[in-house]
Amino acid sequence: MEPTQQPFIAEALDRLWAQFLPQMEERVATLEAASAALAAGTFAMSQREHANSAAHKLAGVLGTFGLTKGTVLAREAEIIYSGEPDTDPDAAARLAEIAAQLRVIVESRK
After folding, report:
1. How far apart are CA 79 and CA 24, in angstroms?
2. What is the pTM of this model?
3. What is the 3-state secondary structure (H, E, C) of the chain?
4. What crossing angle do the helices spanning 91-109 and 6-40 adopt, rounded to 10°?
5. Tens of pLDDT along 69-99?
6. Cα 47 to chain center, whole Å?
7. CB-based burial of residue 40 (10 Å sphere; 0-12 exposed, 13-18 middle, 19+ buried)?
8. Which of 3, 23, 62, 66 gives the lowest tally of CB atoms within 10 Å of its CB?
9. Which residues, in sequence order, are CB contacts of 106 under 8 Å at separation 6+?
10. Rounded Cα gap, residues 80 and 43, in angstroms
């Protein structure tokens, strides 16, 4: 890539980030709500599916923007949600921690 293309690509990525930021924030909120419901014992199958989907989508989009740690965390959440987190006593705490870290990652990229 030529040096003159780098600013253009960075600007394009910034525009895309701004465009998709509301969706990413909504997906993080979905993960926060799911971990809270799991901790409270009110976690439903539909919520698990929604959280799994949100984690999957976050993993992909965060990687696109070079946020590798976010991708790794979102994939971990996706794996946990694809199992049966409601039977794992440590799952709620770990999922809450992942959601909090993802919130920081998304907020710091703004």
Report:
1. 19
2. 0.90
3. CCCCCHHHHHHHHHHHHHHHHHHHHHHHHHHHHHHHHHHHCCCCHHHHHHHHHHHHHHHHHHHHCCCHHHHHHHHHHHHHHHCCHHHCCCHHHHHHHHHHHHHHHHHHHC
4. 150
5. 999 999 999 999 998 878 787 899 999 999 9
6. 15
7. exposed
8. 3
9. 21, 24, 25, 28, 62, 70
10. 14
Handedness of CA 56, 37, 48, 33 (dihedral sign): negative
For residue 94, what are its two tokens? 């770990």
Q: What is the pLDDT of residue 3?
A: 57
- Please give the structure tokens belonging to residue 89: 């006593």
Residue type at 42? T
